[in-house]
Amino acid sequence: MEGTEKISAEQLKSFHNRVNEEADSIINYFMVGYFVFGLFLSIFYNTWLLGIVMGGVSLGLYFLAKTFLSGRLIFRLIVSFLFWNFGTQFIIQLHGMYEMHFFYFVSLTVLLFYEDWRVLLPAVIYAIIGFLLLFYLQLSGSEFNMYFENVPNLTIKHAILHIGILCLYAGLCVLWSKLQRRQTKGAGVNFLEMEEQLKLMDTNIHFADSISQGNLSAKYGADKADRLGESLMNMRSSLIEASEREAKEKFVNVGLASIGEILRNNADNLDVLCDNVIEKLVNYMKANQGGIFILNKDENTDETYLELMACRAYERKKYLEKRIEVGQGLVGQAAIEKETIYMLDIPKGYLNITSGLGLATPNSLLIVPLKSNEEVVGVIEMASFEKFSDTDIEFLEKVGESIASTVISAKTNQTTKELLEQSRQMTEEMQAQEEEMRQNMEEMQATQEEMARTQKELSAKEANLNALINNTTDSIITIDRNYRIVVMNEVQKERYRGTQYEGLQEGANALDMLGSVREEWKAYYDRAMAGERLDFTIKSSVKGEDAWREYFINPIKEKSGSIIGASIFSRDVTDKKRMEVELKKKGFVLDAMINSTSNTYFALDTDYKVILANNVLRDRFKQQGVTLLPGDNILDIMQGDARKIWKERYDRALKGEAFTIEETRELKDKTLFLSAHCDPIRNEDGEIIGVSVVSRDITDQKAAIDKVAELTAEIAKLKEK
Question: Rounded to two decimals, what is the model's pTM?
């Protein structure tokens, strides 16, 4: 039987013990009844000595064995022997009347309650030996024949027939006892498997509750998980990965945002910029040392070199004058190769020779070139007594790109200042060229007229744009690179009205009044301004509501491709989110309900196509060589009379009739008795949209009814005797 491989005999022992206990209670009545019946025969045949002595000894042996050997196999063997000992007593009391052999059949039938073929052996062997003894006494003409005067004349033919009948019935009882024992074993297996499934269900519920409460380190409470448990553990693994990925992204984004703010605030002073950046990086990455080198050109030799602009060592500020040639040491090598260098095995004293950070010997060294579009402008060197993670390396490389862009911009600004100074000097020379200036003025006037015309066109475009963004239900905001709000549509203003964000409007800083979520939204804006397109859904509580909003944050680019700001579109998707959650929950519940039963469940639409079918039904079709899938036409799978019969049943249900039918179904190895319930499926308007069929296996119930009928018939025959 399926499932017995994983159920031990020790687990099933209690079920067999219960059967034996119930059989013992039945045996009590038969033992006492046999003794009373022997006394009853003594009244008519004056055999009180046999009825009292032999019957009393048998009854005494029974209670003595029950007292000291109850529950053991030897006790049941003694009971089997005593059952036919009473039969032998009845035959002697009736002087060999063969009708008493009916007690042989009664005794074996009663012993079947033990569901153990070994228990039958003493009674069978005793009965055969007793019969052979009677046959021998009759043939030998023994003096004991006077005690068996009612024994009919027996021939060898009669003896063989008699013994054959005894053995045949004994064989049938052996087969029946084995069948009963297998059924008890099967019932025990089903009970234990259901108990195990219930335990797994409780384990899955507790495990799911732990995960829902955020305890991703919770252990699964069972040694072996079912499919739902495996799905929950896979879900936990996915959540852990997502959590780690979110922590990594948060580390990188928050760090980039912090460094980006330093770069924006100090873009005009390279010394202060480098000092603040290295201080922030050492603290943020929890490093022990850090230095930033900028690529400069020697005015005398026109050669490039790396100059240490700022450094931090053990949280103390050090001002060192240090120059490293390009290609010299690890720092110079990183500058010329434009690749990150990460070392873990650093010999003592080696850092002083190659890195320029003093005599300390850290355990890990990270050197990242500052490059923008493959143009190297400097190098960052970080040292720590702890290993740098992949996230640290990725973060520092991204920061290096931002720093490189700002350094290039700062140098460009410096060059611009020098050019402006040269321009001032040239202005004095230009004042002498009045005619040329007049011509320039005329050209400027023409340019102004063109600008006025352009401004008029821009005003018209702005009016169209305002009409466009205010005729939508979405909230729209655009910001520039300094987070100042450029455009905010009326939907967004109305949403902020009466809230803590009511002060946000065009010209205001979009990060103001964000409170604890300032850094989170700043990171989103910085990612968009770095060229990334964001699409995500988060929970919103602007007005204290429990709502979900979908956000689209995209970079705003000029025709040249440079990013000048970001656009933020959002819409309320609360109903959609709740519907998704509810549908997913109902799906899990429905799947668990229809697949945790031995009944079959399936549903069809009005075109006889399968909407759903549980695993029991699929397995049943699979035994017939058919794979049942959603969308299959059930009538195409059926053949012959079955197709016609079931189409009529489906049509009855599609017309609104609910009914129950019973039928048999032939499988490869057995015949099933099924009770099927057909019901119409209606939508919320009461229209019939399909048919549901629930089929229950009543084979065991039918077998039990047949068995009761059989036993009832046998008891009726015994009463007639």
Answer: 0.35
